[in-house]
Amino acid sequence: MNVDAQKPMTENRSEICLEQCFHPETVERVSGFMASREDLLAVAELFKALGDGSRMSILNALLCSELCVCDLTMILKMTQSAVSHQLRVLRGAKIVKSRKEGKNVYYSLDDPHIAMLIETGFEHVREERGGGDV
Amino acid sequence: MNVDAQKPMTENRSEICLEQCFHPETVERVSGFMASREDLLAVAELFKALGDGSRMSILNALLCSELCVCDLTMILKMTQSAVSHQLRVLRGAKIVKSRKEGKNVYYSLDDPHIAMLIETGFEHVREERGGGDV
DNA sequence: TTAACATATGAACAAAGGCTCATATGAATG
DNA sequence: CATTCATATGAGCCTTTGTTCATATGTTAA
Predict the structure, then answer these.
(1) Which residue did the predictor score with more confidence, B21 or A126?
(2) Does B35 contact A at CB distance below 8 Å?
(3) Domain with B100 in it: what CATH number?
(4) B108 vs chain A: nearest CA distance in angstroms?
(5) CB A75 under 7 Å to nucleic chain C
(6) Most buried residue, A66, B60, B63, B95, by CB count within 10 Å?
């Protein structure tokens, strides 16, 4: 989470890479192609929220069924507090949504993209271990 | 990255959730559905590696073209050292691959899943900001 | 209202992560 | 071989993050 990048590039150039080393047109073209800083950060935040073992376990469970916090606590064998804290992160990232029913709060995946991301992730790591390439 | 969960659940049950609160069949069913701990951690690691602004910028650039470290340094206006460190993380996560040519090392996305993940991520955040739902 | 329970949250602490600086490695060139 | 340049890496520093513990909030039932 930096992407600051707003320092004068003139100075940068002299320290790091003398003018002959890089490919100016490529750099130009790719620079033009880059997503907005805002989008980049948003996507990074999304993946960061997916990038934790506990949260991935929660999501894996929610992939199967809507669940209340207590169920999750049982399934993941984690503290209720830890589960709640992680659900907060997931809620903040709009990865899960919640629904209140009496004393219970039921969580589920927020939208189909999320399920797709998670499933693609699993595919990727399984193939990687399995064969090497596809 | 915890997912330890190997403490005796008997004790857990009495502390956290008395027997009447949860849905035993659901818990049972979902527990059976869960991916292996190994896969969960691998996926979490994958997303964690994607979950950083600097790395997402690198990947966004690589989505467009194969690039050497120096090009990336220019495009992202980051230190060469910082870029190299992040490329190491990406390499370790098998998200990018590298190819050496003379003094330069060229990086590119490792496989199509990666591009798909990133693009789905962008779609998600754009739709989220744009409309609210699809 | 009081008690019991499900969930949320704040503080504190330990661990992980990203950046910079300095330096190492390894290739090309004189 | 010595130099130069592209890239990689280790150490140190500071920030972020995940967990636990204690407690707050809010809902249902007695």
Answers:
(1) A126
(2) yes
(3) 1.10.10.10
(4) 13
(5) no
(6) B95
Six token digits for residue A16: 């790091």
Best B14, B30, B119 member to test A by mutation, with max A CBs in 10 Å, is B30
Q: Give residues with Cβ within 8 angstroms of A75, minimum separation 6.
A: A61, A67, B27, B30, B31, B34
Q: How far apart are CA A85 and CA A54, in angstroms?
A: 11
Range of the domain at A30: 9-41
Gap from B49 CA to D18 C1', in Å? 17
Which nucleotides on strand D sit less than 7 A from a protein beta carbon?
A: 5-11, 16-23, 26-28
Determine, yes or no, domain membership for A20: yes
Comparing CB atoms, the residue among A51, A60, A68 nearest residue B48 is: A51
A24, A67: one domain: no
Residue A33 per-residue DSSP state: H
Indicate if the pLDDT at residue B1 is higher than 90.
no
Average pLDDT on A103-114 reads: 94
Domain contains A4: no
Is B120 in Cβ contact with A116 (below 8 Å)? Answer: yes
Structural domain contains residue B11: no
| Range scoring the smallest mean pLDDT among A75-84, A90-99, B15-24, B35-44 | B15-24
Task: Give domain status of residue B66, yes or no.
Answer: yes
Cα separation, A74 vs A76, in Å, equals 6
Count structural domains, chain A: 2
**Residues around strand D, C-beta < 7 Å:** A 1, 16-18, 20-21, 48, 51-55, 78-79, 81-82, 85-86, 89, 100, 102-103; B 1-3, 68-70, 73, 80-81, 84-85, 87-88, 98, 103-105
Is B13 exposed, middle or buried, given 0-12, 13-18 or 19+ CB atoms closer than 10 A?
middle
Q: Give the separation between CA A128 and CA A78, rounded to whole angstroms.
A: 29
Rounded distance in angstroms from the CA atom of residue A22 to the C1' atom of nucleotide C29: 18
